[in-house]
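Notebook p. 47: complex prediction with iron/sulfur cluster.
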Amino acid sequence: MKPISIIISKDGISKKYRYLIRGYLVEVLTVMHTDNKLIVCFPTMIKCKVGCAFCVSTKSTMQLKLTTDEMYSLIRSSEKDIPENIQRLYSAMGEGEPINNLTNVINLFTKLRNESESAKLALSTTGIDHKKLNKLLLQTEKLNVKIQYSLHSCLPYDLMPYRSKHNLEILNKHKLRVEYNVTLLNSINDSYDHANAIINSLSEGSRIKITPYNKHDGSKYDMSTKTNEFVDILRKSNKFNIEVYQTQGQDIKASCGQMTAIDIKETYGLK
Ligand code: SF4
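Predicted complex, structure tokens below:
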């Protein structure tokens, strides 16, 4: 598989690759970290119907599952110029909910694990419901896949379409490989009450990743201006391991929540 285009960020760290699959330009992001680690962020779907409020795919009415071979080819193509001795992190954090394409995603991770014991594997999930989340956690256990759970808030709020009260209990059993992702949106989920709800809901020692919001065209949300205050409240609880993520790839629209497949017929007026 060969990319149709490669867009490189101004700092040269991030590259967005576009590939033509089934009439769509599918995006893969690579990030070269300063600690000599390559992150390959790949999609599991073309479009996504899950409907998370602030995602660029929110309004999609269709979705197509990528096959194991398609995902594998995307990964191998986008990393092919990087020397083999560089540590890899293969991360299903591009477009799509991995639970909705679980068989193909597990087959892919099994293949990657069989080829390299040292490669790091990760995926991002909304959890859908506790039974599906439990299945995902069990099937990824032996493969040592890190789970990034899209938490964003512990208060009742319709940011995430699926919310199961049992999800946190299940995740807690796999605490060592789970990270809770909280994307802060201005005046939406960045208040004292939201921080406090996280303190009261997550167990001691949980890992939390705070990520900035990257606005995309048509979004009604903005990046929070209260990140420091929010993080301070969490830190003062002395309960969690907290990482504040600095966004990368923003100038090429390749940050979290900004990657999506492009329908070439619709985009170029051929439909
Ligand atoms: S965040 Fe992920 S699961 Fe949610 S709509 Fe976007 S692609 Fe789908």
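Notes: The first strand starts at residue 5 and ends at 8. Residues 5-267 form a domain with the TIM Barrel fold (CATH 3.20.20.70).
Next step: compare against the earlier run before touching the bench.
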